[in-house]
Amino acid sequence: MIRYLAKKLGWALFTIWAVITATFLIYNLLPEDPARVIAGPQARPADVARIRTQLGLDRPLTVRYWRYMTDLVSLRKRPPTGKEDSALHIGPVAIDLGVSYLKRKPVVALLEKALPPTLLVGILAIAIEVSIGALGGVLAAMKRHSVFDWGTVGMTLIGISAPTFLTGLILQYYMAQELRLFPLDGYGSTPMEKLHAAILPAVTLGLFGAAYYTRLVRDEMISLLKQDYIRTARAKGQREWIVVFKHALRNALVPLVTVVGLEMGTLVGGAIVTEKIFRWSGIGALSVDAIVERDGPVIMGVVILFCTVVVMANLLVDLSYALLDPRVRRR
Amino acid sequence: MRSIRTRTERALGVLAAVVALATSGCSKDGVRPPIGHARDIPPQHGGVLHTAFFVDVRSLDSATAFDTGSAAIELLIYDTLVSYDQKGHMKPLLAESVDVSPDGRHYTFTLRRGVVMQDGNELQASDVKRSLERVLDSGTPCPVPSFYDRIAGYKAFHNGKAKHLAGVRVTGDYTVVIDLAEPDATFMQKMALPITAPVCRTAGRKYNREFSPCGAGAYKLVRFEHGQVIELERNQGYWQKGKPYLDRIVWYLSMQSYTQRFKFEDGQIDYMREFNEADSMLYRSAKSWRGMGAWEPSMLTAGVFLNCQMAPFDNLHMRRAVTFAINRKQIASVRPGHVRPQYKVVPNAIIPESPGYPGQRYDYQRALEEMRLAGYPYDPKTGKGGYPHTIGYLAVLDAFSSQSAQIVQQQLARIGIHIEIQVVGYPTYLAKAGRKHTVQMGVVGWNADYPDASDFFEPILSTSAIQPENSQNAAFFSNKELDALLVKARDSQDQAARLGMYRHAEQIVADQAPWATTHSYRYFELWQPYVHGYRPNPILQQDVRNMWFDTAERKRALADNCLGPIRALSRLCRRGRAGSTIALALGSR
After folding, report:
1. Strand, coil or helix: what is A192?
2. B233-252 pLDDT, tens digit each
3. How far is it, in rounded angstroms, from Cα B200 to Cα B205?
């Protein structure tokens, strides 16, 4: 098991390094000039040149890459209070993603601020989609070929097809503007306000996932309910809900967990449209702004975070198989 | 500066407008009526202004902030030595008086006494010098230090070779003299930019990104959350006694224009500027809103650049043919009201257009004649002739840029010029348009950095603005006569003579046609009737410093305006949102 873990971790680190390097190269090889974007379209050439020098963009690519990688993870000490520091210090290790070209703030601080809103909406959205998806899928499978089943399949089709921005706008208009049950947008100040404000974006995100998961669980359950061990459980006289929820659903959760694991990365990477509609200052909004304005350090920071979360989520999914499926444990 | 709206945002805006229109049952006008009435009462204190931007604000440190959003907020936090009155005329602000030497090289600013900065210290001449040095220091990421390159000793100081800026002399506690190495007719306008505003001593002598914005302005910064909100409160120690009137200002950031409209209808936003065109038209045509709101003067000139170093626009007649073939009214008709035809380089807000003023006009027959002179005659009846190759046209990933490009494409096809539109993101646009021998023609725009005609010629049409990369002169247009004229106009202290020189410069551009000017864009601003003391300033965007509220009317009107489809239940909103949520939830059971 330790060897398996070490191998997985090694691949994870390699993947992260490869992604960082590829992103760095792509960003720096683009024909665009970040200094011009930072200075603004109306800045005079002398000012653009000076900004380029200040940011070190006039140095060779290899020098910039070496500097970025050595700054990224180092063992430097925390500077005295009052001195500018752009690194995140975890024990003796300092993680420095640089300073945003445009916001003039450490990228670590920007990510630190953007992550909680994204996680809040992401977790709520996953809770919504998994609970609706699992329950809807199971019930549809149990009542196959019934009106409920057809209705569920139809609804999931609409849910999958409806673009997030349409769902978001409709929810925003009716639930916030007309009925005033939720704030129109924003993030709020107190924990209760934040939770209240998170519901509409989470539902917007969750509805799409719920539709997808319902179909996934339904199809999985239909095939599982035909299995011999289910027939055996029924023959033993077990109640139907125990057969379905204890024996069948547990196995149906394996593909669900896989997809949820992959989805986590996407959610952290940013529910871009949803965050824009609801003015939710998460990673999605941060990354869109950074890409539009070519804010290199922020783009790099988001990619590193996104990549780390995806890699870690996959690692956790692999480990969770062992918990869900005893056959994997025995291997 | 140009604001960047993504295609997604545009799409969302259009969709929201459709949803809102389809679902609005609020009034015959399609928009909800104003909240309350305008009463004729004297200015009063109190109230909280809520308003919004669709963009985020990059920074509020006056040394580095030079983006669209920050300017309006900086006006509130920082007072400058000089500023503009409501008619757009320059006036002293923190300076009591300004004396300019006859040769235009020495500016003596005498400061008002008793101006207390937001950190509690009195403003002194040394603060002016310290603030300027902080901005122009080589380590400060100021985007436009070269605006001040005529200050004596700038080069040595900016390059780190001198400890102090020699051209800024403190001659008394309240007197500061700025010496220019060469005269600069635009220097006063540059001193009105927030970049030069005195900042608190807490800012120190050198730029530090941890500096919390602090100046001598009417409002103090309380909270700044990127992408969310900026909150300001009244500066109790403000030097203009009795001002400002509002207790607080809450400025939401990155808010979609349709959300702004929803909030405006509800009174959650009191003053709004960023309507999408559909909403703007609805409000302007609504009976209940008749006579309310105002257009903000445009400081933008947009057009088509024609690369004078590349075929076919190295041919003067081809360039002229384009300028005559473009029907600017057709372009403006795409967004009526907001987009206005523009016939000259300098916006009308800076130099008003008058009969006989040089400019470019639509003249189809002249366009055909110029095509003939260029050696590419075109017969519109048979469709034969014209320029035999397709010309690349660079447009920006922005709805209006693409639309105007298509209109230009159709108009040029009528004289035998065929263009292929390439739509790219803004950074790519900047890189490609500014590279020598790369783009034949494309969309171009320039917004005033400061309100002077020189700002519309020197940075974009002079020979000195040509660079092999990042050239701001996208037309790569070089004209010795224009260059000489611009230098002379910048050095001159005689405003009447300067106006004559810029008129001549307009004539050169109209004749030589490096740009075909097409349009300008302006915003429609609207505020609820209980908002008083505000009119768009001709120069300063969104200057809300003199705004005040009829708070009693606002309170009364909002209590009567709890809108919603379930009118009975909507009364519950008087109890606050949480109360209404619970009540609605309970009521629905």
Report:
1. helix
2. 999 999 999 999 999 999 99
3. 10
CB–CB of A180 and B254 under 8 A? no
- Mutant choice from B472, B566, B569 vs A, greatest count of A C-beta within 10 A: B472
Mapping DSSP to helix (H, G, I), strand (E, B) and coil, where does residue B116 land? strand
* Strands B548-549 and B339-341, sheet pairing: unpaired
Whole-model pTM?
0.85
- At A95 the three-state DSSP class reads strand
Peptide bond before B451: cis, by omega within 30 degrees of 0?
A: no
Q: What are the structure tokens assigned to A243, written together?
A: 């057969």
Q: What is the C-alpha to C-alpha distance for residues B343 and B510, in angstroms, rounded to an integer?
A: 9
ipTM of the complex: 0.80
- The size of the A-B interface in CB pairs under 8 A is 173
CB B169 within 8 A of CB B93: no
Tens-digit pLDDT profile for residues A43-89: 888 888 888 888 888 899 999 999 999 989 888 777 776 667 788 88
Identify the CA nearest to B383 among candidates B424, B352, B423, B414: B414
Write out chain A residues lying below 8 Å of B11, CB-based: 165
- Cβ atoms B421, B410 nearer than 8 A: no
Cβ–Cβ below 8 Å for B19 and A103: no
CB atoms within 10 A of CB A113: 17
Inform me whether the C-beta atom of residue B581 falls under 8 Å from chain A C-beta atoms: yes
Given CB atoms, is B422 within the 8 Å cutoff of chain A? no
3-state SS of B357-368? Answer: CCCCCCCHHHHH
Sorted by sequence, the CB contacts under 8 Å of residue A94 that are 6+ apart come out as: A73, A74, A75, A76, A77, A78, A87, A88
